[in-house]
Amino acid sequence: HSAAFNETRFWDWFKTVEGQPYGIHTFLYTFLDTANPMANMPKPIENPGFSYILELLQRLLPNSTKTGGEGGFYNLFMQAMNHRMPTTCPDLHCVFEYLDSQTQVTTLGELTAIPEMDGWIYAGGNYSMVCSVFAFHGWKNAFGDFWPSPVEAGEQTPKDNYMTQLFATDYFTTDNCPTGLRTQPGGTYCQLMGDYVLNLPGYNTVPVHADMNNHCPAQWPSYFRCPAGDPTCC
Q1: Chain center to CA of 219
Q2: What are the φ/ψ torsions at residue 126 (nearest 5 degrees)?
Q3: How far apart are CA 223 and CA 183, in angstroms?
Q4: Rounded to whole angstroms, how far apart are CA atoms 124 and 152?
Q5: Which of 11, 55, 172, 218 lies 20 to 30 Å from 162 when distance is taken between CA atoms?
Q6: 164: DSSP letter
């Protein structure tokens, strides 16, 4: 993959997003991928329980229906929901009214499972990117047409990033990583620091594919993603 990585394209993209704030608006949506059942929430939570949890959060979080205040409910949930409907709802009451009028997406679980689109703009004119999404955006821009389409960086978690099959399998050895060499079936990696071993199960095993990680389960305690031998199932 290194030959296909266009460093100029990466830096051109980086300059367009440098200094943008942390992407709290989509922080929770990267893993809310499934509905009927909600296979990203602990059992026995399904849509009624999920809706109740969000209603409680709306009451408890400060600045719950305003655009200001980074920790407010509006910024954590509502902006991303509005992109998915699309509406300009200020709160959940408005969302429930919208869902009651629909025939396809009718629950909060189904709404939050709609994949994040990388072109969506949030308050302040910014893209919304947490660390893993930022890294994947950089890869996506650098690899360009070498990667299949569509692939949404906004759907990638830290685990998704390290499982993506784009790392050299044998780059790290005891010569360049004498104390932190770790080995997985997908290749070797180097742990630079820490008192505990960083295990990365599934490292470097999932080929980049269209709609990658848009609708993946990840339910405690197994966090099962795909059947053995089918890494591109979701």
Answers
A1: 15
A2: -105, 150
A3: 21
A4: 21
A5: 11
A6: B
Helices 47-60 and 92-100 pack at an angle, to 10 degrees, of 150
How many CB atoms are located within 10 Å of the residue 37 CB?
Answer: 15
pTM > 0.85: yes
Among candidate residues 210, 17, 225, the one with its CA nearest the CA of residue 115: 210
In the beta sheet, which residues pair with residue 189?
Answer: 182
Which own/partner contact pairs does 134-137 have at CB distance under 8 Å and 24+ positions apart? 134/17, 134/23, 135/161, 136/160, 136/161, 136/164, 137/13, 137/17
Euclidean distance between CA atoms 102 and 112, whole angstroms: 15
Residues of the chain with pLDDT under 50: none
Contact 77, 29 (CB under 8 A): no
Cα 199–220–204 angle (5° rounding)? 35
Predicted local confidence at residue 67, as pLDDT = 58
Q: Which residues contact 180 (CB under 8 A, 6 or more apart)?
A: 190, 191, 192, 193
C-beta of residue 182 within 8 angstroms of C-beta of residue 197? yes
pLDDT of residue 72: 85
pLDDT one-digit tens code per residue, 32-81: 999 999 999 999 999 999 999 999 999 988 765 565 556 688 989 999 99
pLDDT at position 223, please?
86
pLDDT of residue 63: 65
CA-based end-to-end distance of the chain: 22
Structural element, H or E, at residue 96: helix 92-100
Tokens of 130: 């947490």
pLDDT of residue 70: 65
Q: What does the chain come to in residues? A: 234
